[in-house]
Amino acid sequence: MEIITHPHPTLKHQSKPILRINAELKAIVAEMFELMYEAKGVGLAANQVNLPLRVFVANPSGSRGEGEEFVFINPVISKGTGNEVADEGCLSLPGVYGPVNRSKSIHVEAFSIDGQAISLDLEDFMARVVQHETDHLDGVMFTDRMVEHSLQAIQGEIEEFEIEYRSKLTDGLIPDEQAVHQALAEWEVKFCK
Ligand code: ZN
After folding, report:
1. In CA terms, which of 15, 72, 124, 131 is 20 to 30 Å from 48?
2. Which fold has domain 11-192?
3. Do the Cβ atoms of 27 and 69 come closer than 8 Å?
4. Where exactly are the structural domains of the chain?
5. Percent over 90 (pLDDT), the chain
């Protein structure tokens, strides 16, 4: 398992709800936490590790053994109130930052890795993290939410990732789009059908 970067096609994939929580999913989640801490992130969505599953992990402290670890399975956000613009980054666009307007507070319903229902009112940083990660499950990057003039300021950095991706594709170092979608379909059979 590894973190994929823009413009990998799985980052544009709308993931389907998970229908079964089993030992394999628990192992996936444990590995996602590992990768998130290694990369010094505060959240990591399944799409970012090339899996089409509606689950993300988060720890607002970004450090193992500190803060609180969250696993959100099939998250549904509602009751967004207020607006706040703040800079965001993403492990799938490492080193790139830009301002994104998000709801200041939200309500989120989900399931934990033990299958328990989660119902939380969140605000500020944690509300932002949950909105950013839930977007990933819908195939939406933070850059998709940026206003045009802010996006233009980082366009060059984004293009560098696109050039690198295309060159790896040309050299046959990574699977093509058809192979990626085939692999995603197999994961969906396993967890979402
Ligand atoms: Zn992200």
Report:
1. 124
2. Peptide Deformylase (3.90.45)
3. no
4. 11-192
5. 99
Distance 17 CA to ligand 1 centre (A): 19
Residue 18 Cα to ligand 1 middle (Å): 20
Helices vs. strands in the chain: H and E counts, helices first: 4, 5
What is the DSSP track for 136-162?
A: HHTT--GGGGS-HHHHHHHHHHHHHHH
Q: Which two tokens mark 129?
A: 């993290």
CA of 123 to the centre of ligand 1 (A): 18
Catalytic residue among 133, 159, 177, 188: 133
- CA dist., res. 157 & res. 178, Å (int): 26
pLDDT tens for each residue of 136-163: 999 999 999 999 999 999 999 999 999 9
Cα(131) to centroid(ligand 1), Å: 10
Of 62, 33, 59, the closest CA to residue 46 belongs to 33
* 133 classed as catalytic: yes
